[in-house]
Amino acid sequence: GWFRRLLHKPKSSSVESSLNSGCSASSSPSSSSSESTSPSPSMSLVRSIRPSPVVTSDITSSDSARWAKSYDVCICHSEVDLALVEELVSYLEGQPESFRCFLQWRDATPGSAVVTELCDAVQNSHCWVMLITPGFLRDPWCKYQMHQALAEAPLANGRTIPVLKDVERKDYPKELRNLYYISMVLKETSFRQIRDTVVRYLQELCRSST
User: Fold this and answer.
1) Distance of alpha carbon 108 from alpha carbon 121, whole angstroms
2) Where does the record place Basic residues bias (predicted)?
3) Counting CB atoms within 10 angstroms of each CB, which of 168, 171, 192, 195 has the fewest?
4) What is the mean pLDDT of each run of 10 residues along the chain (210 residues)?
């Protein structure tokens, strides 16, 4: 018995010393060891409100509900904003998720009616990005496509993504007043917000389909 206690005694002391050293390293020089073992309210709050990381494995699998439609994102825009839209499409398609974007001048079928192509693009896309600019507000086809998207899924959170650029808040379309929008001040930040919104919608879609 005394030999067994002799063998176990160094182990317990080493464990205690390692715990004590860990506590002292995580606490401030003026704090006690008992205070360092319990998290402060501010630390707990930060951990509780920190957003979960965006995980894309569930939307890239071969059996994902994502593949039920031809496109992940349909970009609704005015012709005068084509250069900016091409940058956005290049960004989204270059992401690890390889988003499938519908770009009207590139993906529309030659000879097809404009109305038919716009309706098909809306119906065959998971998300719709509305690039609302002064050109968008003047373009009747943009408004038509916006109304088609709202009629397709009026209450789908995250599916319609309004993006405001060079438009005052008072000019924000009344049809979209129930939706939060992305204000494009920094292009890189706005592109990332659009990407994250699309990912979250696709994740919710995949979870609801299982």
Assistant:
1) 9
2) 1-11
3) 168
4) 56 44 42 41 34 56 84 95 96 95 91 90 93 96 91 80 95 92 95 96 86
3-state secondary structure of 162: strand
CA-CA distance, 206 to 210, in Å (whole number)? Answer: 7
Assessment of whether the complete model's pTM goes beyond 0.85: no
CATH architecture, domain 79-208: 3-Layer(aba) Sandwich (3.40)
Rounded CA separation 47/153 (Å): 34
Residue in this structure with the two tokens 């084509």, named with its chain if needed: 82
CA dihedral 6, 10, 13, 19 (to 10 degrees): -150
